[in-house]
User: Fold this.
Amino acid sequence: MKMTKNRLVTAIVIVLILVCSYFFMGPQPNNMIGVSPQISEVAQSTASEPSEHTIEPKSKSSEDLTEVGKAKDSTASTESGESGEPETLSTESALTETEVPLQEESQVTDAPSAVKPSGAPNASDGSIKKPIDKSTSTPKVTVGSNPDTEQVIDLKTGKDQYQTAPVPEGKAMPVEPQDVTISDKALTATLSISAEAILNNIDLLDKEKVELVPEDGVIFSPREVTFYEGESVFNLLLREMKQNKIHMEFVNTPIYNSAYIEGINNLYEFDCGELSGWMYKVNGWFPNYGSSRYQLQEGDVIEWVYTCDLGRDVGDTYLLQNGKTGSGESTP
Amino acid sequence: MSDRFESYHPVINFIYFASVLIFSMVFMHPVMLGISLLCAIVYSFMLKGRKALMFNLLYMMPLLLIMAVMNPAFNHEGVTILFYLKSGNPITLESILYGVAAACMFVTVIIWFSCYNAVMTSDKFIYLFGKVIPALSLILSMVLRFVPRYRTQIQAISNAQKCIGRDITQGNWFQRAKNGVTILSIMTTWALENAIETADSMKSRGYGLPRRTSFALYRFDRRDRSVLLIMCGLITVLLIGTLKGETAIRYFPSIKIPDMAPFSVVVYVSYAVLCLVPVILSLVEVVKWKSIESRT
Assistant:
């Protein structure tokens, strides 16, 4: 192929356009570069200190990278050391680590819902039901008094049928909304909606949306709201937003069997950087499953918060914990 | 009224369509959308008469309605909540209006392209781009010709088959299907043969040999220059207006339109004049002809 003048000019123009688009791409979240090393480092040193995940200087990231490499090597070596053992044993040990006690005292009231783990076709081929009674060491399935509180985990993926990793000890299990019957017994919970995290990242926010953020970032101040027994966090949010004339858009995602909240008060996901969106926490914990699957209890404190950094800026430690082991193997 | 704009230099034609198409795609301001849509309909009517009107009414209107409804069904952004869907998502005024605007824009661009196809024939296109991108312009002009060409050919085959009672309109449904397959088979054979013939013909005429020139009857004369200058002036006004934000509009989260000012009227008028350049030229021609005729 002959290198004519036209071709040369075209190549230069293309390169120029690429360079320009690189420089005029707009503001980027400033901690994009050090994300994974940062997580691993924090997890290695002190997993219990959430305040340490501050922004890393860029120069350090290469160092961190090597560290990560080392860590990987070490884990690989331990794995190879264990490889002689039969696989069933290792899975069993993983099991005992992820045990979650029954929460009968909190969930018994939902007995009318009588949940069957209907969509568990993989229960026979290497999947187990959680939680397991602590006293029995054999992986016996407890089809216990309350089926509400179990999470069927597929051992191959380490997740349940709706892509949820094991729920930490002592936290509420997901309850599938299709299995729930909502009674008309009115209960109360506390609901609040806040976009406070945007205030620290206002330069990342879509210019057209700045006017939507309140001075203090509070969209829905904490207040007592009524819900009906059996309802989920999503049901409550939907009703309250309708009643209070606050805009809210969601989309149902069948793969997670839950609604996904795209935007509240016209503040949408990705409006404040690529890592932004709405998250919810109940009693201070960010559930690792969708809001349609979180069944409310009397007196729950529900907070919807807008994050600009995948939850790290609003106090979610899920990523930090999972950065440590990768598969959600252990709890802190 | 015949279209005089077609007889202008290809550069003029191309600049006109390129600018009008780009502006139609970019401007979401309701006034600009309305101007563009109206002018496109007028020009397509002038070019193709009642056929264009039928096309616009039969295909474009339903398309416009469907697209206008589609947007609020899937997009729920906006501060003005009108009512709630059964699923729980809100229907907002902003998403409806944005849907209407987007549908208008879509339809307008399609109509402009139908005009483009009528005016910018493939010889004009090759004349313009044959030097810069020879292979691509040839392929483009051939591909763009395929659909109308195949349609006329299939019509010819169908007519010939009708003479011997083997058209898809004749016989019972099984016979019809059989005839249809036969027509398709004839069509495929013809297409393959035609491709080989085209290639042979091009080869025998020395396509692709170096130092070959092509003949074209186009001449850039005074009227072309004056039209070009006028169009450049109008485009400049529009660009300045765009830079000053006169054509901007914000749909989400709430609708925000810049206030009307004398300058925005200037921008609207220049946009309308730019879109109507071919119509105005034809009108001027008609008036001139009439006056000459009456003098003699």
